[in-house]
Amino acid sequence: VQLPRPALLDLCNMAPQGKITIAEDEAFRNQCVRVAVKEAAEKTVIVGIASTAAVMYLNQSSRWFRTSLGISGKVAMVMSPIVGTFFLVSEHTMSDVKFNPRKYGLNRDGSLATAPVQMNSPNVLKGQLMAHHRAANWAYDHPFHVLAGCAVPLVGSIFYSQTGHDHLKLSQKIMHTRVLGQASVVTLLLSVMFFRDYMDRHGRFKSLEDLEAEKVAKAHTDEIEAQELIREADMALKSK
Description:
The protein is an all-alpha fold.
């Protein structure tokens, strides 16, 4: 049986959709985590601004508040709503996205339910990719490496900067490092999540030549899969 090329591609697209492979299930879970963290980070920013403003206002206007709580208590009043909001929203979103993936722009196989990268995408370049484009692609593929690689030296440098303050006790230096370190790491986390959201919407940085090569390779792969489906169908008919 020999079908023309359009029919081959249509047959390939008609492959069974109910079966989810292990790789697709893993990709779907990773996307669920990404969406949950992004949603939680956005809500955390709002709650963090509100809790910080409230504590600063009370610290300025209430003498009882200033004298009753130390620096750790005031920091806890700022951080507790932030941490609670992050875990609450992330858990709720994680549960919701598993049952309603389309609501968050996902397919059950872990792929994005959005249009593929187009020629007019800002991330499709006419020339060759520069070093910063390749670095952005690497950061998109390895977000946790970026977080760890930036957060560890940053917190270490904050602690090192406290060593010059001889009038402070070690416990106070550690407290200052924790407060500044938490704020820095949260900022890094939000930056990485917004960066990944941008890359998810616009795709990886690619050259026009790379995009054309991918289209040709995908068409060739689709044709091979369609031919394989036809061969299996012929064998099934002959066996009957």
